[in-house]
Amino acid sequence: MTEDETVDPARAVAIGLRARLAVVERTAWFGFMHAMRERPEETQAFIEAERVRCREGFGSGAWAKDLTAAERALLGEEVDAGLAQLVEDARAELGDGT
Question: Among candidates 56, 59, 51, which has minimal Cα distance to 80?
């Protein structure tokens, strides 16, 4: 086995965590797409409410207290952008890109 065929143990742990995250993400996507097909208005309203809730939670410092204000702001922005993109991706996949 050459060096290119081996995986550093520390990287193996990171890769394993990445794989678990991918599995959770794909499973969540399946559920989200089902919800978007069955009840699109309610699903989109729920996601919008969660965006507001997350902005308030991270913005007020009530959540992720172990982070600095700047880190919480970045996390909040990333979560908000991710939730918005989730809806856009689902709408595009369903053929409703408006």
Answer: 51
Q: Say how far apart CA 38 and CA 56 lie, in whole Å.
A: 29
Residue-wise pLDDT tens digits, 20-53: 999 999 999 999 999 999 999 999 999 999 999 9
Q: Report the distance separating Cα 85 and Cα 56, nearest Å.
A: 19
| Alpha carbon distance 21, 94 (integer Å) | 24
CA distance 7 to 52: 42
Instruction: Name the residue type at position 56.
Output: E
Residue 3's pLDDT is 65
Give which of 38, 39, 26 is closest to 86, Cα–Cα.
26
Domain map (residue ranges) of the chain: 3-93
Residue type, 52: V
| Token digits of residue 3 | 């060096």
